[in-house]
Amino acid sequence: MLKTSRQRTSIQNYLDTHRTHPTAETVYLDIRQEFPNISLATVYRNLNLLAEQGEILRISTGSGPDRYDGNTAPHYHVICMECGCISDLNLEPQTQLNALADELFEGSITGHMTHFFGLCPKCKIKK
Question: pLDDT at residue 2 above 70?
């Protein structure tokens, strides 16, 4: 069990209240308002710890920096191919996919993570 730190608690609270799927640098810039002496390395270390403990999600977009999400409940994301923003998709988890994949896999399926790619509303209007 890790000792609780004020910085880690602040980072987790930040992610719990911001649904923008921020990068570590964005978290760092905002957390500095509360902890002016915090380093970017400390923010990365705490984000990694929280992700490893399952307290937050780390979202790899395939290009650019990882993003972070305080909502660990099963849900889907849409990644904008133009600006890179990530949005939650209001779609119920498709649990039947787990059963289907489990039939096709020799091991055991316990869950899935899916990202959709497209254009966010702002980028769609620009096009």
Answer: no
